[in-house]
Amino acid sequence: MTAATDVMVEQQQAAPRSFPRIRIGRWVTHLSLLLIVLLWTVPTAGLLVTSLRDPDQIALTGWWTALAPAEIQANARLPAASDQVEEAGVYIIRGNILGADTNREILAYGATNATVRGTPVGEPLAMQQGGVVRIDVNGNFEWRSPVEFTHDARPRVYYAATMAPRATLENYQTVLTANNVGRSFLNSLTVAIPATIIPIMVAAFAAYALAWMRFRGRDFILAAVVGLLVVPLQMSLVPVLSLYNDIAGMFGLEGKGYFGVWLAHTAFGLPLAIYLLRNYMAGLPKEIMESARMDGASHFQVFTSMVLPLSFPALASIAIFQFLWIWNDLLVALVFLGSQDTHVVLTGRLIDLLGTYGNEWHVLTAGAFVSIIVPLIVFFSLQRYFVRGLLAGSVK
Amino acid sequence: MSTLKITDLNKRYGNVHILKDVNLDIESGEFIVFVGPSGCGKSTLLRCISGLETISSGTIAIDGREVNDVAPSKRGIAMVFQSYALYPHMNVYRNMAYGLKLMGMPKDQIDVRVKAAAEKLQLTSYLHRLPKALSGGQRQRVAIGRAIVRDPKVFLFDEPLSNLDAALRVQMRIEISQLKDQLPNTTMIYVTHDQVEAMTMADRIVVLKDGVVQQVGSPLELYERPQSLFVAGFIGSPKMNFLHNEHAAKFGAHTVGVRAEHLEVTPSDGAWSGKVIYSENLGADSYIYLDIGEAEPMILRQSGKAPYQAGDTVSVSPKPHELHRFDATGQPILH
Lengths: 396, 335
Hints:
The complex is a heterodimer. By secondary structure, chain A is α+β, with helices and mostly antiparallel strands. Chain A has helices at about 1-50, 55-60, 170-175, 180-210, 220-230, 235-250, 260-280, 285-295, 300-310, 310-330, 330-335, 345-355, 360-390, and strands at about 70-75, 85, 90-95, 105-110, 120, 125, 130-135, 140-145, 155-165. In chain A, the strands form 2 sheets. In chain A, strands 2-3-8-7-6 form a 5-stranded antiparallel β-sheet, with no helix packed on it. Chain B is an alpha+beta fold.
């Protein structure tokens, strides 16, 4: 009786204390989740916004000012004396200093760079060549003088202007119509699809054997697979290439070709795929395999009718990882496929588009978005398995 | 005909000796229950019979045919696992048909068998559901159905009811007993740690401890004539009271065992007396815990309400012929 009351008292005391603690924990979780989401989505959003902006504006201001008019300073030359007309004894030169750039609005102007903001829009500016010039917001100017103009050199006028934001798909047009981008897109798919499917197929068989078949040396093989996980790709690139060249030579294959790049990606992807799949498969209920064995299933039948369908979440997750890695890969593709125009993958092509100085931001951002599309399709089509795959071990 | 004969079976995992010289003769159509504390090897023995585990020495014969090296599926046995082990991605029909399909049975014949089993187990309306959409009892029935369709000679159950709640467990226990009556020629071997299941379902019970068969016999035989201290203590609830030293010396034994229901309160001159520590009233009957100077309190069962308070002195005697005497090695001293 007393023990029971003690417990109740304890619970009553504990209840108000534990309540806020749980809430704080949840807040921390939610806030850090929000932070992670922001950390990942903000740069992507920036990339998207940038890819839709005017190339000139990209060079001037950051993507976060995309909706605000940008303020720029520029200069233009006024016409020479030959363009003057005489109207009622006054000599006038007319024109528009903005030319075709109609998205600018003049704020102020001056005769020198230092006095660029000296004369507000519409006010007269005295010119060295004689007379005064007035420029309105649209860039239309009127240069009046009571005496005839005689200058030959066209004088400069410096101005400050705002530039209206402009959303455009021109960058995408540039990327997509550039030479052979479509071809490279197909090349990337030709590399990525088999190089995703082959290692997963091989890994699934290997993982089943390592998880559910008893044979001599199994633990050693598993340890070797884990050991291979730490081998950096760069280290093995050259030996693998020369090995491949020797073998390809024996079979009369070209030294550089899709077959080689598939094999290379398979080899580099296998250890992780085997390791992850083995761990997943080893976690499948043993009794299901035993039950299938009691039902008369051979190892191959257990694999195809039980393990493969039940491992679909893991297979999907690994497919996503492998596909993303191959799609974004440049190094292996360059080494094993070469940089000939007909074989270049999308990542290689984007580098070509970037220009010698790498300053063509509009191409880079639009190109990035073009190449994101495929991984996004892959991810969203496999996403429900992916999420299940991640939760599979924790929630039973 | 489906007899099962186990001769001198030993099972070792490396240096660990799990099953020691097990000998069992099981008649066709018997319902045998393996019981024992956890780790006693009862599940391992079942798995050896199923063929999922190899045996280190000895023989297992089904219908006189040695099956030591026969694959599990070729032994003519079927097994129901503790966790049901249903194939989660197959519906009930495919779960039951899977084994038959692997046997190469024609589709129409499979259909007949699966439907017959489903009918027997009241699963007909669930045939197209996935296991996750079934309740615990239904899953259990599917697991049994999957075994029935193969028409096995020997049916193995590995603690099949331990995942069910108490009410469902009673119901399934009755269903399995009824199933036994419907399949008179099928031998059933059932592993459990639950005494009630063992006592109510078994034709014969095999009590195991540390890989050694302690006693084989009908439930009442084990209850009335335990052949060792272990069996005496293991069978029956609450546990049999064991008395030592001077309490036992009175009866000329090293240890004396007497069940709670076989103790009677006597006015003052009983065999033993002690103070009431605690009493539990369960309505139909009550348990009284007595301190008579042993390490564990003596438990006394009385029908109806117990009129005792803690601290009362009570004197008790065993009912005539309901006393078990054991010698120093734990063997019974026969009357």
